[in-house]
Amino acid sequence: MSDSLDSYLEDYYTELRTPYRAVISGTIQKSPITHTKCIYFESAILLSKNDKIIGSIPLEHSTTDLFVQIKFNGFKISVNKIRTYLTPFYYEKLTQYDDLDSFKRNLFQQYDVDYIIEAEYLLQNFYHYHVLVNEEFYHLPPPNENEKPIKAKNTVLWISDKIFIDGKPQIELTPYYSDWSY
Fold first, then answer.
1. pLDDT for 15
2. DSSP code per residue over 55-69
3. CA–CA dist 5, 22 (Å, integer)
4. Residue 12 confidence (pLDDT)
5. Is the distance from CB of 60 to CB of 41 less than 8 angstroms?
6. E strands within the chain?
7. pLDDT of residue 145
8. Residue boundaries of the structural domains of the chain
């Protein structure tokens, strides 16, 4: 067992550059909306106008590490090093005429939307998911005033409940990670 994605990649880099099925496990928690037992959750409000999702507001997400098992090897991974491409476990359309709390009611005026969707995304303990390593590039400020910004790389693990085709996810990135920035 490796203690992180980076140490696992030292031995199995080529293996994870192609999509794999992995068993993912972790600390059991209860999701905030449906109270479902899971190892990772995200809850969000999706904003819809003209039957299209125009934005999202992440509400809550897990922070505990996960364990990824591929074949006979595995590694621990921080949720900051994953990107989830998941089908919503829970998905409820709400209109301004529904019985809403003040936060949700204000979203209709603030964003001029037709409806909002309360969504929850989960990873469940010991389920099989599709995984693929990806590299994200970003720039750090230059060390000195007259120098160029420094290009940096973050290696992350894509996790999906749908298969990757030609190295690409077939579903949207979940709201917490779609708003991710460096």
1. 64
2. EEEEEEE--S-EEEE
3. 13
4. 66
5. yes
6. 20-26, 29-30, 37-38, 40-49, 52-61, 66-70, 73-77, 82-85, 90-94, 115-123, 127-140, 150-160
7. 87
8. 5-178
pLDDT digits (tens, 9 = 90+) for 44-65: 999 999 999 999 999 999 999 9
Query: Which parts of the chain register pLDDT below 70?
Result: 1-3, 10-16, 182
Cβ neighbours of residue 5 closer than 8 Å, sequence gap 6 or more: 68, 75, 77, 81, 133, 155, 156, 157
Task: Determine the residue type at 145.
Answer: E
The SS3 call for residue 75 is: strand
Helical ranges in 2-101 per DSSP H: 5-16
Pull the structure tokens for residue 16.
Answer: 């994870």
- Pair of tokens at residue 52: 């299209």
Residues 6+ apart with CB under 8 A from 175: 42, 44, 46, 56, 57, 58, 119, 121
